[in-house]
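FAQ: What does the model actually see?

It sees only this:
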Amino acid sequence: MLHIINKSPFQTSTLDTCLRMAQAGNAVLFIEDGIYAATAGSAAESRVRQACTTLKVYALQADMDARGVTGKLIDGVTLVDYGGFVDLAVGHKTSHSWL
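And it is asked to produce this:
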């Protein structure tokens, strides 16, 4: 399953709920303000680093670039472009957008 998070971890508990429900081998993609979870030094960093041990974790590069935080990407999180986003969606039988 592909889990898509678009909300900041500082606005909602979406990240925590998603990580509780995600199963080993699932993928998580951070987009829009959700990318703040994938930045080093954030309050969510330890949770995302832990998630990287059992999940495939991605962040949309265009959203990281737009917010000026690409250089703060957490090790273990893979940047994808829009084509990569499409590949992730096509490559998973199901996806869930966490709102």
